[in-house]
Design a protein that fits this description.
By secondary structure, the protein is of the alpha/beta class. The protein is 43% helix and 15% strand. It has an eight-stranded parallel barrel with strand order 1-2-3-4-5-6-7-8, surrounded by seven helices.
């Protein structure tokens, strides 16, 4: 099991210099840092990779799509643009030395069209399946994130995300499941993890308020048992967003400080993750 921390915990904007964040994460003892590619392109990838390597850290990546790059669109030009945008994100991921890219990739964040959900899901799977060769060549795995109902209507549950991933027919495409979203949408999060099985390629943790795992009411030990049952042995990344008053906070609807000190939260989180998930895998 590898333990990571999302750089967004400390970021005031997605274009912030990650260098001090990498050093802090390394000093705490994390195995890696997850970077949002919303602020990272090919022009910055080599420098950031070198910074991470200097700190002894691995990198994982996340990204999201806008309405002009919608894999579910009826417009083939928009779907083609989704392929172009994701292809570049895969290239950036590989240049960073990472083999994992996940996030809001089945449909744009905040786009809702529930009456046409089935057709949109089919178009999403067909579009994403076209990335199979690109992913294979880059040695990158793509994870489709299951989001809560306030962020997406297409992949609100693990089952919906897994169905699209499996319909892609690519061994390089799976799902990202996140305790924050599962807390809202799943009646039984551990059962959702077990049903995902080997489709699960990435796992995010934060407590029910998007803060420090173990500080709220989410049952992480139950998730750890489920991960052991499916022999999951990859990243557990703490994706906490806890600071209000910044551009990135507005993007994530963080209107109050969830934790008083991000670095203290990260330090205590790693201790907790090792205690709860340390024997998984």
């Amino acid at each position: 099991m590898k333990f990571g921390i999302h750089a967004g915990l400390w970021m005031k904007s997605w274009t912030d210099d990650p260098a001090p964040i990498l050093k802090t994460a390394a000093d705490i003892g994390f195995d890696g840092v997850e970077l949002s590619l919303l602020g990272v392109g090919l022009d910055r990838a080599d420098d950031i990779r070198a910074q991470a390597e200097d700190c002894g850290l691995a990198l994982t990546c996340s990204t999201g799509l806008g309405p002009d790059a919608d894999p579910t669109s009826q417009d083939p030009d928009v779907r083609d643009n989704a392929i172009a945008v994701l292809t570049e994100a895969i290239e950036v991921t590989a240049r960073l030395g990472s083999n994992g890219l996940a996030g809001v990739v089945a449909a744009p964040w905040g786009v809702f069209d529930p009456a046409n959900k089935s057709a949109r899901a089919a178009r999403s799977a067909e579009t994403l399946s076209r990335l199979d060769g690109v992913l294979a060549d880059a040695n990158v795995t793509l994870g489709i994130e299951a989001l809560n109902r306030f962020e997406s209507d297409l992949t609100s549950t693990a089952a919906e995300a897994c169905a699209i991933a499996r319909a892609c027919g690519s061994k390089h495409i799976g799902v990202l499941l996140d305790s924050f979203h599962m807390n809202i949408e799943e009646k039984d999060p551990p059962a959702a993890l077990r049903a995902a099985g080997d489709t699960l390629v990435h796992y995010h943790v934060s407590d029910n308020d998007r803060g420090q795992p173990g500080s709220g009411r989410y049952d992480f030990p139950a998730d750890a048992r489920a991960l052991a049952d499916i022999e999951y042995d990859s990243w557990v990344v703490a994706e906490m967003f806890v600071m209000a008053g910044h551009p990135s906070s507005r993007d994530l609807n963080i209107w109050r400080d969830i934790e008083p000190d991000p670095t203290v939260a990260a330090t205590e989180t790693l201790v907790y993750l090792k205690e709860v998930f340390g024997n998984v895998g």
